[in-house]
UniProtKB/TrEMBL annotation:
Family to which the UniProt record says this protein belongs: Belongs to the PMEL/NMB family.
Annotated organism of origin: Pipra filicauda
UniProt KW Glycoprotein keyword: yes
GO BP of this protein: cell adhesion
Cross-referenced Gene3D superfamilies: Immunoglobulins (2.60.40.10)
The protein, known as: Transmembrane glycoprotein NMB
UniProt-recorded Gene Ontology molecular function terms: integrin binding
Length: 558
């Protein structure tokens, strides 16, 4: 009896020793971190308890001196990117890209070559490309079917043969991905892409690690490792961008009263998991206006009160899924994979309901909350009058023009004028000045034009949080006085029809305000000139964002 026990103990011990000796995927790939003890199987992946062929695929620790010689001409680095966060059930995609040492690149055949003209002293003959690794040569010496000695090399670390799809022999790198206690292996060129379905991955943050090997003469050589953190969530990942026409700074959460704000919801769904879902958007703008339900991702809201508000958005997706069988079947546990009860993320969060249309659905929500400050701002700017100022002692070639500008909303603290070509696109000069306006928004901006011609002028009034602009097209005749007298301005003829009546009224109304003090040397040439109401910007530049660079140049006459 005791003999049997001894025997058994010995066997167990031997097994333990054997286990310790065999390298497992977990040892090579887990980066020293302990992997999950319980997990569900990922489709197409294998357990990291499998044995790793360390003879063909050597394993080196991080500080191993052999890393220095694993690649000719320097170290290869790998960059692993992910499109996480991923909604549970959707795919998360990883892209790993190899970065070779300076002046090396992959050619069309998958070989690594030195780039021409990259180094100061070319390493060889000028018109011949020089190989870092001429793998084509290695392969061509040996045809797949009858090359038995090499055949044994075309396997993954777990002994599985490489897939033989077209072009497989031009793939000289082996990528082994590891996450969630499982691995996935593939061959590839200098970059590889991998999609993983997250249905079986527990919610939260996880590490994806990848080890990359290159073809070698008697096996594979490790060249780089990389890892990235990705997260799986049961909340729809959303981002809301807000836009308001006269807002000065789009990123400061300060918006203007009485002007519509456009909210645009972006759902992060790179794998199109929600393509066939019904998505609704429930808005609470926090100003007591109630709950708005929209089916469009874009909505707009106008705050009519000043103050701080909390915006609440709930996005709901109703995702059609295949119905589960009525009697729940317990799937047999997969060998080497322990199924943890706690990891069943989907069962906890999803509610499955029968629908009138007969299908089954799961409901997922996404939440967004943001504080918003609503302040007074400049809502509109109008150029109500343009006047040519003539110099009498006139060697002066410059034409001076006064623009009378009004605005609605709060009072401006700065004014910028941009003079550009008649298409309003090529800016010729930008002048910005601080202004002080008391109680009524009415000011005169004087600008000089050196050359005769047609110009587009943009006048922007701004305060801390807002800015609005008005555009006008003006034609400046020669600087000499007699020529200026004959109708100086050609305004946009199209609009003149609409504008003249309004402009006339405004002209009458504001005529008495003349904040500019006139020197004796100047006479005002107003006869024969027409003033125009100029809010045509909305008609002609509907897509304009109206954000001008507020560059400070030479001081202007405000
Ligand atoms: C999830 O796990 C189950 C059983 O463990 C398996 O049948 C299924 O293929 C897995 N699904 C995915 C997407 O990995
Ligand atoms: C490399 O340099 C040579 C002369 O220095 C030039 O003729 C050739 O066009 C260059 N090749 C490339 C790809 O720039
Ligand atoms: C690389 O291999 C190809 C194919 O065997 C051969 O034509 C070429 O000359 C080789 N280049 C070098 C530099 O060895
Ligand atoms: C085996 O390889 C040789 C060249 O090394 C080739 O001529 C021959 O056709 C190959 N045999 C088969 C069956 O592919
Ligand atoms: C999701 O990933 C799986 C592999 O895990 C792939 O077979 C499937 O085509 C992917 N689906 C989408 C929509 O990308
Ligand atoms: C806009 O607001 C953000 C956030 O308050 C700030 O960091 C940034 O400097 C502002 N930009 C300008 C141009 O004022
Ligand atoms: C999802 O929709 C987008 C655009 O509507 C389309 O480009 C994409 O192919 C669709 N994907 C799937 C998996 O249906
Ligand atoms: C709004 O919040 C800002 C800081 O975020 C604060 O300075 C301001 O006083 C608040 N205004 C009101 C009306 O509560
Ligand atoms: C916003 O939503 C949160 C929960 O998501 C809720 O607690 C809060 O009361 C909501 N606020 C408003 C103003 O609706
Ligand atoms: C002038 O304003 C218009 C919008 O009214 C805009 O499209 C144009 O780009 C602006 N021009 C310059 C030079 O800023
Ligand atoms: C790529 C590779 O391993 N090539 C080898 C194939 O087998 C021949 C003969 O055994 C070797 O000379 C090659 O180096």
């Amino acid at each position: 009896m005791s003999g049997v026990r001894h025997h058994l103990g010995f066997l167990l011990l031997a097994e333990a020793v054997l286990c310790a000796a065999a390298t497992r995927f977990q040892d090579v790939l887990s980066y020293g971190s302990t992997s999950a003890t319980s997990y569900k199987k990922l489709q197409g992946w294998s357990s990291d308890q499998n044995t790793w062929n360390e003879k063909l695929y050597p394993f080196w620790e991080e500080g191993d001196p052999r890393w220095k010689d694993c690649w000719k001409g320097g170290r290869v680095t790998a960059k692993l990117d992910t499109d996480s966060p991923a909604l549970v059930g959707s795919n998360v995609t990883f892209v790993v890209a190899l970065q070779f040492p300076k002046c090396q690149k992959e050619d069309n055949d998958g070989n690594i070559v030195y780039q021409r003209n990259c180094t100061q002293d070319p390493p060889a003959a000028e018109d011949q490309q020089v190989y870092v690794y001429n793998w084509t040569e290695w392969i061509d010496n040996c045809v797949w079917e009858n090359c038995t000695s090499n055949y044994s090399h075309n396997v993954f670390p777990d002994g599985r043969p490489f897939p033989h799809h077209p072009g497989w022999r031009r793939k000289n790198f082996v990528y082994v991905f590891h996450t969630f206690g499982q691995y996935y292996e593939t061959t590839g060129r200098s970059s590889a892409k991998l999609s993983v379905n997250t249905a079986n991955i527990t919610l939260g943050k996880h590490v994806m690690a990848v080890s990359i090997y290159r073809r070698g003469h008697s096996g594979y050589v490790p060249i780089a490792r990389a890892k990235a953190i990705y997260s799986v969530t049961d909340k729809i990942p959303i981002f809301v961008s807000m836009f308001q026409k006269h807002d000065r700074n789009i990123s400061d959460s300060i918006f203007i009263k009485d002007s519509p704000i456009t909210f645009d919801v972006n759902i992060h769904d790179p794998s199109y998991y929600l393509n066939n879902s019904a998505i609704s958007y429930k808005w609470n703008f926090g100003d007591g206006s109630g709950l708005f339900v929209a089916s469009s991702s874009t909505t707009s809201h106008t705050y009519t009160l000043q103050g701080n508000f909390t915006l609440n958005l709930t996005v709901q997706a109703i995702i059609p899924v295949p119905c589960k069988p009525v009697t729940p079947t317990v799937p047999p546990p997969t060998p080497a994979v322990t199924t943890g009860a706690s990891s069943d993320s989907s069962a906890i969060v999803e509610s499955m309901e029968d629908n009138p249309d007969g299908g089954c659905h799961i409901y997922r929500n996404g939440y967004y909350r943001s504080g918003i400050s609503v302040v007074e701002g400049i809502l509109e700017v109008n150029i109500i009058q343009m006047t040519s100022i003539q110099m009498t002692e006139s060697q002066a070639e410059n034409s001076l023009v006064d623009f009378v500008v009004t605005c609605q909303g709060s009072l401006p603290t700065d004014v910028c004028t941009v003079v550009s070509d008649p298409t309003c696109q090529v800016s010729k000069s930008v002048v910005c000045d601080p202004v002080t306006v008391s109680d009524e928004c009415l000011l005169t901006v004087r600008r000089s034009f050196e050359e005769p011609g047609t110009y587009c002028i943009n006048i922007t009034l701004g305060d801390d949080s807002s800015q609005a602009l008005a555009s006008a097209l003006i034609s400046v005749n020669g600087g000499s006085s007699y020529r200026t007298t004959e109708g100086v301005f050609i305004f946009l003829g199209l609009l003149a029809v609409f504008a003249t009546i309004g402009a006339f009224v405004l002209y009458k109304r504001y005529k008495q305000y003349k904040p500019i003090e006139r020197s004796a040397g100047q006479t005002e040439k107003q006869e024969g000139l027409t003033a125009y109401f100029s809010s045509f910007k909305a008609v002609f530049f509907p897509n304009s964002t109206e954000r001008n660079p507020l560059l400070k140049s030479k001081p202007g006459i405000v």
